[in-house]
Amino acid sequence: MPNKSHEADVAFIKALAEVLQDNDLTELEVKRDYGADDALNVRVSRKQKVVAQVAAAPVAAPAAAPAAPAPAAAAPAAEASQAEDPASHPGAVTSPMVGTVYMQAEPGSPAFVSVGDQVSEGDTLLIVEAMKTMNHIPAPRGGTVKRILVEDGAAIEFGTPLMIIE
């Protein structure tokens, strides 16, 4: 009997890998409880191309566009936009998974955090819904929330900068 269960688990994992590939996802995580002492925890992920980091750069590019008329000012503006890339900030909190961001526990309730709030390590910053599972994203360190980089209900990828805590 354990061999059949093992074969079913392997087939399930292969099916998850196909879902990952077919839907161009970077990560899937599934937890199944079969009984008191029987569970299956699966995390399937694949390396993300550097293209995702390049996709974050256009967010800062519109700020550089107004500075373009003066050629002498264009070079410092380009350097500033690179320095303002949220993913490279040392206080950036990035998404551990693909999903949808929710800033509060339920519609109409207050947000978990706002800009200027003090947070402690482990405090819930937001929720990422992935495969109908609500995943609370904890603060990796204590500090002050300086910027929130995502909007409520936004679709995010693995590694997307969510907020900056200093």
Automatic annotation (TrEMBL):
Name used for this protein in its record: Biotin carboxyl carrier protein of acetyl-CoA carboxylase
Q: What is the lineage of its organism?
A: Bacteria, Pseudomonadati, Pseudomonadota, Alphaproteobacteria, Rhodobacterales
Keywords recorded for this protein, A-Z:
Biotin, Fatty acid biosynthesis, Fatty acid metabolism, Ligase, Lipid biosynthesis, Lipid metabolism
- Note the Gene3D superfamilies from the entry: 2.40.50.100
Say yes or no: keyword Transcription present.
no
Pfam (any one): Biotin_lipoyl
> InterPro entries of this UniProt entry?
AcCoA_biotinCC, Biotin_BS, Biotin_Carboxyl_Carrier/Decarb, Biotin_lipoyl, Single_hybrid_motif
Q: In which pathway does it act?
A: Lipid metabolism; fatty acid biosynthesis
Give the region (Disordered) as residue ranges: 65-95
Q: Which GO terms describe its molecular function?
A: acetyl-CoA carboxylase activity
* Residue intervals of the Lipoyl-binding domain: 90-166
